[in-house]
Write a structure and sequence with these properties.
The chain is mainly β. The protein has a domain of 103 residues. The chain has one helix and 28 strands. The strands form seven sheets. Strands 1, 2, 3, 26, 27 and 28 form a six-stranded antiparallel beta sheet that branches. It has a four-stranded antiparallel beta sheet with strand order 4-5-6-7, with no helix packed on it. Strand 5 and strand 6 form a beta hairpin. The longest helix has 4 residues.
Length: 336
């Protein structure tokens, strides 16, 4: 297994760099990294000690101080989606286009040995407008409880699968009755039990389907759908897009991407971005404390620009993101 250490940079941010309840204590320049469009570029392991990211088709693993090694030896199939299956394994969908066909493979990689095992593979025709999820399966993505899962979506089968560890690692509860996914129905967003034995409509209003992935808070009191933050108890809501003051009035279509809830506070994390045809407007990483009503631009605090794909660590004290093809981790401490 080829391993090597890259020089890492620790930037000490001044105490004035406040982010709501938090102060940014350190900013780690991890390594060069590429954008993975389906579900974000940099992901923390379940124990928060490592991050995974891709660069030039290869999977890399780093600790949270930027000491990294190459975990995959094959770059011939482009990564589309991926999640940590355990602290030792990554489950991912890889795809390669060959003339008029697309080969999609769902596989698991052992991050120490680089060994890869295939769970599913299909070959689909390529046509204009085809999605990266077109085929016999969808995923992987996380259940509400934080377990990786994928969906078998075939003419005679629709099933939510929570895979067990391939190489012997252990995850959280694998019981389908203990896990849920968010799924759009004809009249709104539903919380669906993974064994499909029960479902609850979350949105009291019949909102139309929103293509951006929805998120639900850990106490299941709030949902985030694109730029719409709704309190489920009384259906009160706010439009996050209106909070971003830097967007010029002509920047129609700008919105909220890759939103998630903090695991330990009343804070959400998201990317404020614009469509590709409006590339004159940079992307930004923002946090919003919906109790304190406080919006903070993280990339402005650390003097970075064009930042995308934010993600919380499991304890909420670190945030990963990519700026200008480089992966960063921001360490945060509670402000006292």
């Amino acid at each position: 297994m080829k391993k090597y250490i890259l020089t890492f940079v620790i930037l000490i941010i001044a105490s004035a760099a406040m982010a709501g309840k938090y102060k940014i204590d350190r900013l780690i320049n991890v390594a060069p990294a590429n954008w993975i469009p389906k579900n974000g570029p940099v992901k923390f392991s379940p124990d928060g000690s490592q991050v995974a990211f891709f660069y030039r088709g290869y999977l890399y693993i780093s600790d949270t101080l930027g000491l990294e090694h190459q975990a995959s030896l094959d770059s011939t199939i482009y990564p589309v989606r991926y999640e940590w299956l355990s602290n030792d394994e990554i489950i991912l969908q890889r795809q390669i286009l060959r003339n008029t066909t697309a080969v999609r493979r769902l596989c698991v990689i052992n991050i120490d040995s680089g060994e890869e095992r295939t769970i599913l593979e299909d070959v689909q025709p390529v046509y204009y407008g085809a999605s990266g999820d077109a085929g016999s399966f969808i995923g992987p993505f996380l259940t509400v409880e934080g377990n990786p899962c994928y969906i078998l979506d075939q003419p005679d089968v629709f099933d939510i699968i929570i895979p067990t560890s391939t190489f012997g690692g252990r995850g959280k509860s694998l019981a389908e009755a203990d896990n849920h996914i968010l799924q759009w129905g004809a009249d709104g967003l539903y919380l669906v039990r993974a064994d499909q034995g029960d479902s609850t409509r979350l949105t009291r209003k019949p909102y139309p389907r929103i293509s951006l992935h929805p998120a639900i808070s850990y106490d299941e009191a709030y949902i985030l759908m694109g730029g719409l933050l709704e309190h489920l108890a009384d259906s009160s809501y706010m439009i996050l897009d209106t909070l971003v003051k830097d967007n010029p009035p002509t920047a129609l279509g700008c919105g909220i991407l890759y939103g998630s809830f903090s695991p330990n506070s009343s804070e959400i994390l998201f990317q404020d971005g614009c469509p590709d045809d409006q590339d004159y407007l940079d992307n930004h990483i923002e946090t919003y404390d919906y109790d304190a009503k406080l919006l903070v631009s993280l990339d402005a605090l650390v003097n970075l620009s064009n930042c995308v794909g934010p993600s919380y660590s499991p304890d909420g004290h670190m945030i990963s993101f990519i700026c200008n093809d480089t992966a960063y981790i921001a360490y945060r401490v509670l402000y006292k």
